[in-house]
Amino acid sequence: MVRQLALGSFGFLLLNSSGVPSTRAAEVAPYDQYADNYDSLNGGTSAQLLGFDELREFLVGQASGDVLEVGVGTGLNLPLYQRAKLQSLTVVDASLGMLDQAAAKSRILPVQPILKLRQASVEHLPFEADMFDTVVDTFSLCVYSEPVAALKEMRRVVRSGGRVLLLEHNRSPNPVLAKYQDLTARTVANMSKGCVYNQDVRDLVEKSGLKVIQITPALGGLIQVVVAGK
After folding, report:
1. How many CB atoms lie within 10 A of CB 70?
2. Are 85 and 63 contacting, i.e. CB atoms less than 8 angstroms apart?
3. How far apart (Å, rounded) are the C-alpha atoms in residues 9 and 153?
4. What is the DSSP letter of 37?
5. Contacts for 199 with CB less than 8 Å, ≥ 6 apart
6. CB count in 10 Å sphere of residue 61
7. What's the pLDDT at 51?
8. Which residues of 136-170 are buried (b: 16+ CB within 10 A; e: fewer)?
9. Is it the case that residue 99 has pLDDT exceeding 70?
10. CA 22, CA 25: separation in Å to the nearest integer?
11. CA–CA dist 126, 210 (Å, integer)
12. What is the pTM of this model?
């Protein structure tokens, strides 16, 4: 079913796709509840002090051509896209509450005329193969129930020669800190919207069939900026 959402005089579409399996309804519902205060939880002073804002800007600034952002949330990255480098910008999230926030935020942004928002599960993207030049994901890989499946979908929809750009939580290369992450992973996930923060990002990327082009560690390896391709 396709649902149109009229947003003032701006007239862009929010498409409600069947790409979100009904079995995931319980997983998606909390994000609808988080939507109104999501920016304060994932942005703000703490994110600035940790350097997350600069990392987002560094990653998103590399996007070009026909771009897909998955797990867009409330659209924290939308102001960071360089309009002159983009042909189109499509963003997806499983939560309509999050997409409503992203749509409202986009109204005054340069990318608004080329922006399409769509409700979809990242593990089941409703797009044909080889549709996008760039696929972007920031801090969402840790919450996907099937992260390798999600990455495989990103690989499927990105064009040959295109790029998958990731900014993700990662298991520390420091064995002591990694052990702490392993011991606290379940507790942290329960406190942070399900984020499994001790994933080995490189391993997940390689298991998906994507080829790692570049990895830039941050915060001692707890965060990784990944550029990958087919």
Report:
1. 27
2. yes
3. 34
4. G
5. 141, 142, 147, 168, 169, 170, 171
6. 13
7. 80
8. bbbbbbbbbeebbebbbbbbbbbbeebbbbbbbbb
9. yes
10. 5
11. 20
12. 0.85
